[in-house]
Amino acid sequence: MTTYFNNPKTLEELRKQYKNLLKKYHPDNVGGSEEATKDINNEYEALFKVLKDKHNQTAEDTTRQTYDNMKWDFAEDEALRDKLYKIMQIPGLNITIVGNWIWVDGDTYIHRATLKHDLHFEWASEKKKWYWHSEAFRKKSNKKLSFDTICNYYGSADVKTKQREMLEA
Predict the structure, then answer these.
(1) R_g over Cα of the chain
(2) Would you list the DSSP string of the chain?
(3) Among 15, 27, 39, 139, which residue's CB has the most CB atoms within a 10 Å radius?
(4) What's residue 128's pLDDT?
(5) What is the tens place of the pLDDT at every residue in 96-127?
């Protein structure tokens, strides 16, 4: 029984719900709190273990698929969550999650050294945004797509901070 999650059946559903819950309940957002965010993270970890075991069992039973050949990469999921948590601590940034990439704009100039050297984000000059992705999700084509096209294709979730919401009000 969970307080925040709505009975996700797959790891992908769990991850989607997690992103949406963070948008709503993060302490920097109106109505959010540190306690709610901790509870969400605890529920996520518990559900993740259950769904991971279920996924492993199903894969084992049906195809005898090994962990290395699984579509879902659990280390990549953890890396994305860790990076997202760290970037959310920096004030004045607009954060957009697109697929397995994190894109950042807003007041990035004063944080550029942290973004580049500490968090290993890269600058996309054509999009005027910083981005991060794990090695497993490198771009495979030479097509140049606009940020809006990328968001429409992969889906996106914006994470707003309380400071940004106060300025917009």
Answers:
(1) 17
(2) --SS-----SHHHHHHHHHHHHHHHSTTSTT--HHHHHHHHHHHHHHHHHHHHHHHHHHHHHH---GGG-SS-HHHHHHHHHHHHHHHTSTTEEEEEETTEEEEEES-GGGHHIIIIIS--EEETTTTEEEE--GGG---S-----HHHHHHHH-EEEE--HHHHHHH-
(3) 15
(4) 94
(5) 988 888 999 998 999 999 999 999 999 999 99
Give the neighbor-by-neighbor strand order of the sheet with 93-98: 122-124, 129-132, 101-106, 93-98, 156-159
At 111, list the tokens. Answer: 């944080």
Please check whether residue 114 is in contact with residue 90, taking contact to mean a CB–CB distance below 8 angstroms.
yes
Residue 60 has a pLDDT of 53
pLDDT, residue 161, reads 57
Backbone angles phi, psi at 34, to 5 degrees: -65, -40
Express each pLDDT in 33-81 by its tens digit.
888 888 888 888 888 888 877 766 655 554 444 444 445 566 777 888 8
Paired residues of 104 in beta bridges: 95, 130
Distance, CA of 31 to CA of 12 (rounded, Å): 26
